[in-house]
Amino acid sequence: LSYFRRCEKGVHFIDSESDNEELNHKSLSRTEMQLTPKTNGSSLNYSSSSHLNVNLGDSALTKLRKLTELFPHRTSAELMQVIESTSTLDGAVASGLILFGEEGMTSFTYLYSKTYYPCEGRYINLESQDDDTLADEKKESILKKLHNNFPDLDKEELREVLNEHDWSYWEALEALQVFANQEDEVPSESEAKNINGNEITSNFKKQPKEMPLMQLKQTPAAEEQNGKIKKHDKSRKGGRIIQRETSDSEDSEPLSSDGDSSLDEDYSSADEEVEGVCRTKIVSFLQDATLDELTLIPQCSLRKAQKITELRPFNNWETLFQMFQRANGLSEDLIWHCKTIINEREVVHKLMCRCADISQRLEKQVTQIIDDGESNSTIEQPDILNKSLELKAYQLVGLNWLALLHKHHVNGILADEMGLGKTVQAIAFLAFLYQKGDKGPHLITVPASTLDNWIREFKHWCPELKILLYYGSLEDRKLLRSDILHKIVDFNVIVTTYSCSISNADDRSLFRRVKLHYAVFDEGHMLKNMSTIRYQHLMTFNAQHRLLLTGTPLQNNLLELMSLLNFVMPNMFSSSTSEIRRMFSSKAKTSDEQSTFEKGRIAHAKKIMKPFILRRLKSEVLQQLPPKQDRLEICSMSEKQGQAYTALFKKLKRSINRNEKSDLCNVMMQLRKMANHPLLHRQYYTADKLRKMSKLMKKEPTHRDANPDLIFEDMEVMTDFELHLLCQEFGSIRNFQLDKNLLLDSGKFQILEQMLEDLKTQGSRVVLFSQFTMMLDILEVFLKHHKYRYLRMDGKTQISERIHVIDNFNTDMDIFVFLLSTKAGGLGINLTSANVVILHDIDCNPYNDKQAEDRCHRVGQTKTVHIIKLVSKGTIEESMLKNGQQKLKLEHDMTSSETGEEGSIPLNMATLLKASLGL
Ligand SMILES: Nc1ncnc2c1ncn2[C@@H]1O[C@H](COP(=O)(O)OP(=O)(O)OP(=O)(O)O)[C@@H](O)[C@H]1O
């Protein structure tokens, strides 16, 4: 969706949400761009080391020079360690970034992109371009280019990465490379510690070993036995195939940190017997795999997979080879490529076993608690919590779960449904640690919109904990940093926002320098994409333990869930990220086997996540919470709107047929706009009218010297509603204002009119969400027209103002409607004083809608909550709805319990904990 947002021409059509935590990479000072190599200072003093003098080849020297430019405060010995740990310059830079951060480094992005990706004549400096004006075709071509570099990655994933980086090809490439290099070239943890001098919690792992496939060759005896195979092996030693083998192996390498896959162990030996085992694995894989599994073999299309199944049975290695040779279109390479997928499975299997081990350890502990009798071993509400408040039973379970993980040095994700009190449980846990003597420092990173709420909850629940708010202007934060580093302030917990914690090198450096005990990340689903810079930066925070809080851990696919797990348990997962990535991002290609295939993956993912995630649903644990009733309101469009929609649909269809490259996403957005309100397009202000208006504008003192042609051009790209506002603003064109009837003319407004009237009579209070700020503008006209009292909050509302607006709504019962943009009001806020949520327009991601719905349906709600979704009949919105329902099914499959005993919550605390853990 964010892609659509950027495609939008209307600059404030979609809520830009100033605090949406996107990293502003452009903030790097451009005055620092023209760096010249430093020739003085200790950093270039590499000749002082005789070792370096002797061993430095030209390329190492060049690398050292480059790295010295980038990391001027690092010694040559440190830089050399980085260089020696990788084979390429890019790898060295990436490793340097991970190890040293950007501390003391200037304009990394600029230098990196210009210096390491020179592309004479091909460089597209997108950084200077406005997103909104970036042509869609250009975006497609950037996407294509990036996809060429990362053919294994899903295009949508890459689109997201590009979005995260404002469509800067180089920044996206860099982010993905950093990730890839992290997998392939990051030095071992001990090296990292040596270099950095202090501990870094990052994706450290051992150097890749020798590539196993290179050794996948026949023993002389076997070669003699089978001339054909011998020929094959010979061919594999040269050129392309060897290259391919190497890269395959690199991809599927790094294995688990504590050992290699059994397959690699097999191949690392020349022993014939072991070779036999490998062959047996390949034969049995090709014999038993489903169609979808076969298509996971590199270069194996669905057609080839079908052919393989037709050739079955494969009784042994020799017949397998012969059959492949005889079959049309099946190359022997496919047989060898099976190794990649077998390897992946073994890595993931090993991971599952380790996760099962942890589950067992936890289970043992819980059994112990049961045996000891719960009063001795379970943790009660910490004494320092506000005595007038009481944790609910499931919250105590949450606290016990957190304490259990802590005891076993395991990090986790508290993924209770929205509104169950994750904030409160996290605070209770920090209070528990405090009582045990762990006084921090801890860090809580939250979206800006929930910052005030966190501070308030801390004060409310645990005033004894000293909270330091790390938030403010650059200057404010500078002072705060100095106070923190010089220990001038006394605190237990730092609370900050995602933006403030990583927006510049000094912020990031602070959280690498302060030795944090716990780092808690609220709305942790913001870390669902491990390729983003935000993810990478937050990974480097110097925290002993991490805890993620999220109400929507699973959104689009299992890979996102794995990203979250990797974030909290990098030691466990980082060595398997490439396997995980492939295993969980590939899609089933056949529909008939989809369910078995998906079921298998879901079962795997469940096993992996079991020890690390605690998720309770409101329906399970909050029996006393009033129900939530969903209502779908399919709205027929108004007559004019329907005609305009059909005309637009036909026009867009023609344009798609004419130009295949036309951006489908943009087409979708155009249709969505029309489905919501016709004034989000321009049709009433014809070119003729605009010509007249642009001439009249010259009468305005502000436009006296303006060129009417240019005014006309500006007007041409505005929507009807924007032009209407312009007419309200300038007296000379006031006559051109739109008639009220047109402003109120939409199918959804027709439904809303009666609906709001009824709700008002019933004494209900309404929270009304839209994703589009301009839609909120038109809704304001509608509410004013009907004389309803309302409040509004969107991305433009000052952060400091937000809590007051929310309090206002929660305390002044005469305010009937709260207008909210999904971005600004969808996360983390409490609006239990309302009992109706209307989603004027649905989101492509149903979890964003769920987040919005649960602002009212949460602890503290006393009335039945009605969720009403408005969907325009016969429009693109109906397809979006269907798509969304499929996405929600994945979550349902993941969270449904195998035994089907949901809802029955045992009272005994330890048993409750056990049930919650799924043990
Ligand atoms: N035990 C309790 N007693 C009284 N109020 C509670 C209790 N637990 C939670 N609350 C209140 O319930 C509301 C929801 O809690 P909280 O904001 O922590 O939920 P959450 O799970 O973090 O939600 P989200 O995922 O939407 O951020 C808050 O107003 C909180 O103060």
TrEMBL record:
InterPro entries: Helicase_ATP-bd, Helicase_C-like, P-loop_NTPase, SNF2-like_sf, SNF2/RAD54-like_C, SNF2_N, UBA-like_sf
Keywords recorded for this protein, A-Z: ATP-binding, Chromatin regulator, Chromosome, DNA damage, DNA repair, DNA-binding, Helicase, Hydrolase, Nucleotide-binding, Nucleus
Region: Disordered, residue numbers: 184-270
Record has Transmembrane helix as a keyword: no
Domain Helicase ATP-binding residue range list: 403-571
Compartments where located: Chromosome; Nucleus
Residue ranges, compositional bias (Polar residues): 193-205
PROSITE patterns to which the protein is assigned, alphabetical: HELICASE_ATP_BIND_1, HELICASE_CTER
One Pfam family from the record: SNF2-rel_dom
Domain of life: Eukaryota
Biased composition (Basic residues): 228-239
Catalytic reaction(s) noted: ATP + H2O = ADP + phosphate + H(+)
CDD domains in the record: DEXHc_SMARCAD1 (cd17998), SF2_C_SNF (cd18793)
GO biological process, one term: DNA repair
Family designation: Belongs to the SNF2/RAD54 helicase family.
Designated name of the protein: DNA helicase
Native species: Callorhinchus milii
Gene: LOC103184490
